[in-house]
Amino acid sequence: MKKLKISLLLFAGVSLMTIVYSCKSNSPTAFTNATMKPWFENYCASCHANGAYNAGSWLYDPTNDQSIQEHIEHIYNEVYTKKTMPPSGLSQTELDKFKKWYDAGHPSN
After folding, report:
1. Containing H/E element for 37?
2. Long-range contact pairs involving 98-103 (C-beta distance under 8 Å, separation at least 24)
3. Which of 3, 16, 89, 103 lies at 20 to 30 Å from 48 by C-alpha?
4. Does pLDDT of 24 surpass 90?
5. What's the whole-number mean pLDDT along residues 66-91?
């Protein structure tokens, strides 16, 4: 009986995951975080947005949150660990703002 309950729970979990996954939209989610969108616009977009001359390995796209989420470890490393981005540098207040957002799970909105 115990194995039957475990099997049913596992099946129910897999079925629920399948339903949730299949209901997800393939359309991109915009990056709308009220604190960090202006931060990225101010410190990153001039070099890392569409049409920018020096995008490097990361392209910021505020219409697609994945542009940040897929590169967040690289961004964190350059901004907070190495402090090489942006090239003009950041104040401690701006670094703290970035770190707080990152530590909170880097929410898109």
Report:
1. helix 36-43
2. 98/36, 98/39, 101/33, 101/35, 101/36, 101/39, 102/72, 102/76
3. 103
4. no
5. 95
